[in-house]
Automatic annotation (TrEMBL):
Family statement: Belongs to the LDH/MDH superfamily. MDH type 2 family.
Keyword Kinase assigned: no
Top-level taxon of the source organism: Eukaryota
Organism lineage string: Eukaryota, Amoebozoa, Evosea, Eumycetozoa, Dictyostelia
A single GO molecular function term of this UniProt record: L-malate dehydrogenase (NAD+) activity
UniProt binding sites for substrate: R92, R98, N132, R163
Lactate/malate dehydrogenase N-terminal domain segment(s): 5-151
Catalytic activity: (S)-malate + NAD(+) = oxaloacetate + NADH + H(+)
Protein name: malate dehydrogenase
Alphabetized HAMAP family for the sequence: Malate_dehydrog_2
Residue numbers binding NAD(+): G11, A12, S13, G14, Q15, I16, G17, N105, V130, G131, N132
Length: 328
C-alpha cells in the first residue's frame, strides 16, 4: 500500500479541529487508500483536551490512521509535514480592536511560518490557513518561510464558495453539481465578492436563468457574505462542521484535481486581474490531476464586479499594512 503522509493540524482540539480530525482520519480528505499520521498542535493550556480527542481517535479504530502526534511545539508538530491545516487562531474578544486582532494573529502565524520553514516537507507541503484573518495570516506565514514556495500556501474561501453553490442550486431548483464556473474573489471576509457572471446551470447562463439582478445584489451576495453571522445567530456557535468540510474539499481538490471544474482558493497573487502581487487573494482556479492549480485566465469583469473586486483588494492591502512590521 501507499506510505503514510503527515498531516499537521493546529488548533486541533478547537471546534473546527474536532470536526476535521475524524474526517481526515476516515479518509475523506486524501482517499480511502491513503494512510495518515495526524500531527496535532495545541496551546499548552489545551493539551489535556487534545489528549481526550486523541483517545477518541484511537477509539474509532480508523484503519488509515497510523499515528497521532500531540504537541505544543510548532517545529515538532510540523516535522516532515506534507499537509498543514492552520486552524488555531486568536478569536476576537470583547472590545478588541481589529488592529489588535491582526497583530495577535500575526505573532502566531509568523512563528508558525518559521517552524514550517525549518521542519516541514518543503517538496510536498500544502498549507491551508483557516484561522482568521485567513488571507493575511497566510501572507504572514508564507513570508516567514523563505525556503518554501509561496504557492504552497493558501487560505480558505471554499466555505464561501460552497455556500454560494448551495444558494444558487436552491434558487434555480437544481443540484449543486449542476452549477459551474462560480467563484469567490478576494478576502475571506464581508468584502468577498461571490461572482455569478460566468456561472452556468446545466450549461446555461446563471445570470439569464435567474434573470433577477436585484436578487443577486440584495439577496444572494449579502447572504453568502453574512452566512457565518447567520449561523452564529441560529446555533449560538460558529460554523465548525461546514468549515471543516470545506477545508477537506480544498485539500482534496488541491491534491487530486477538479476535473476541469472551477473552484475558489485564496492563493499567492502574481498580479492577476490587478490583485496586487504578493497578496493572498481568492481567485477562480482549476487544479489538474497532478495537483497543480492554475488561475482561470481571460475573464472580463464588468463595472459592478470591478468595484467589488477593488473593495476587497483594498481591504487586503490595508490588512497587509496593519502587520507590515511582521513581514520580513
Ligand atoms: P474554531 O475552531 O471555531 O475556529 C478556529 C479559527 O477558524 C478561528 O480563527 C475562526 O475565525 C476560523 N474560521 C474560519 N472560517 C470559519 C468558519 N466558517 N466558521 C468558524 N470559524 C472559522 O475556534 P476554537 O476557539 O474552537 O478553537 C481554536 C483552537 O485553536 C483552540 O483549541 C486554541 O487552543 C487553539 N489555538 C492554537 C494555537 C496554536 O496551535 N498555536 C494558537 C491559537 C489558538 P473566527 O474567530 O473569525 O470565527
Amino acid at each position: 500500500g501507499k506510505a503514510p503522509v503527515r498531516v499537521a493540524i493546529t488548533g486541533a482540539s478547537g471546534q473546527i479541529g474536532y470536526q476535521l480530525l475524524f474526517r481526515i482520519a476516515s479518509g475523506d480528505m486524501l482517499g480511502k487508500d491513503q494512510p495518515i499520521i495526524l500531527q496535532c498542535l495545541e496551546l499548552p493550556g489545551a493539551m489535556n483536551s487534545l489528549k481526550g480527542v486523541a483517545m477518541e481517535l484511537d477509539d474509532c479504530a480508523f484503519p488509515l490512521l497510523k499515528g497521532i502526534v500531540q504537541s505544543d511545539k510548532p517545529e515538532e508538530a510540523f516535522a516532515g509535514a506534507d499537509y498543514a491545516l492552520l486552524v488555531g487562531a486568536r478569536p476576537r474578544s470583547k472590545g478588541m480592536e481589529r488592529g489588535d486582532l491582526l497583530k495577535a494573529n500575526a505573532e502566531i502565524f509568523s512563528v508558525q511560518g518559521k517552524a514550517l520553514d525549518k521542519s516541514a516537507n518543503r517538496d510536498t507541503l500544502r498549507v491551508l490557513v483557516v484561522g482568521n484573518p485567513a488571507n493575511t495570516n497566510a501572507l504572514i506565514a508564507a513570508r516567514n518561510a523563505p525556503n518554501i514556495d509561496p504557492k504552497r500556501f493558501s487560505a480558505m474561501t471554499r466555505l464561501d464558495h460552497n455556500r454560494g453553490l448551495a444558494q444558487l442550486a436552491d434558487k434555480t431548483g437544481s443540484a449543486v453539481t449542476d452549477i459551474e464556473k462560480f467563484c469567490i474573489w478576494g478576502n475571506h471576509s464581508a468584502t468577498q465578492y461571490p461572482d455569478i457572471n460566468f456561472g452556468t446551470v446545466k450549461g446555461k447562463s446563471l445570470v439569464n436563468t435567474i434573470n433577477d439582478q436585484k436578487w443577486v445584489k440584495d439577496n444572494f451576495i449579502p447572504t453568502v457574505q453574512q452566512r457565518g453571522a447567520a449561523i452564529i445567530a441560529a446555533r449560538g456557535l460558529s460554523s465548525a462542521a461546514s468549515a471543516a468540510s470545506a477545508a477537506i474539499d480544498h485539500m482534496r481538490d488541491w491534491t487530486y484535481g477538479t476535473n476541469g471544474q472551477w473552484t475558489s482558493m485564496a492563493i499567492y497573487s502574481e498580479g492577476e486581474y490587478g490583485a496586487d502581487k504578493g497578496l493572498y487573494f481568492s481567485f477562480p482556479v482549476i487544479v489538474d490531476n497532478k495537483g497543480k492549480y492554475e488561475i482561470v485566465k481571460g475573464l472580463k469583469l464588468d463595472q459592478f464586479s470591478q468595484e467589488r473586486f477593488d473593495a476587497t483588494r483594498k481591504e487586503l492591502l490595508s490588512e497587509m499594512d496593519g502587520v507590515k512590521e511582521l513581514l520580513p
